[in-house]
Amino acid sequence: MKYLKKLLKFIKIYLALSLLSTLMVSCAINDKKTVGTFAPKGNEFNDAVIQVYAARTWGAKKFVSVHTWISVKPEGADEYTSYEIIGWRLRRGGTALRQRNNRPDKDWWGHQPELLLDIRGDKAARLIPDVIKAVEDYPYKDNYHAWPGPNSNTFTAYIGRQVPELGLDLPSTAIGKDYREIKDVVGMSASGSGVQASLWGLLGITLGTEEGLELNILGLNFEFDLLDLAIELPGIGRIGASDVDEYDDSKKESSPSSTEDIAK
């Protein structure tokens, strides 16, 4: 009985901290204009590119969550193809999966994009077929729930798990990234660098070199990134050292640090 009381006390503290960070999020939403600043122009950049983006979602959800998507450009292509999940598409029939060929680093409902992952060159060319296959195999194209999932962040996390060489580390604000059905409670983390146990994205824990230690209660994530000396809070996201690297054109396949490890 005393252990149950301790657990309930922990959950209350956890939810109180989550609420506090959510109330602070208005100070954390970045209004700096980033549209069009991340993706090289297709007709000027011959190499292959894989990028993952996040932007605050619309309405009241923007205070706690982001929307994520993935964009690819094969070697020699003049344009990008972006893949994302949009829930309202289901109400119009068809699938929630959307494919578009406009600017990858566009805004989302007026909110500026944030770059989460940037891989270019030979490695990107090698991984793009795997990314496209993961998009095609995504099992929830016809199923969408903003909370706890499956949603747009469930989709991006699925791609990360299917293509672990991406090293994709999604932010704590990507609610839905931890969604896993009961038949798949334990498995690889989205970055491919660790393990995760999660029940429908409502209760879970993740441990990995990219994610650090993540705790998830009711879809709200706390992350302790000991390697980068940073933490992530619900609603706010990352606080502490950033792991964003500027792309270096001289770094090729042989260098694992060519911006494949990107901040949340």
**Number of E-type strands:** 12
Q: How do the SSEs run, as a string of H and E? A: HEEEHEEHHEEEEEEE
Shape assignment: globular
**Gyration radius from CA atoms, angstroms:** 18 Å
- SS element count, helices: 4
Mean pLDDT: 85
**Which sheet architecture does the biggest sheet show?**
7 strands, antiparallel
Task: Domain count, please report it.
Answer: 1
Q: Give the N-terminus to C-terminus distance in angstroms.
A: 39 Å
> DSSP strand (E) fraction?
25-35%
Q: Which regions contain 5 or more consecutive residues with pLDDT less than 50? A: 253-264
Strand order of the largest sheet: 6-7-8-9-10-11-12
Helical content stands at 10-25%
Counting helices, strands and paired strands, the structural category is alpha+beta
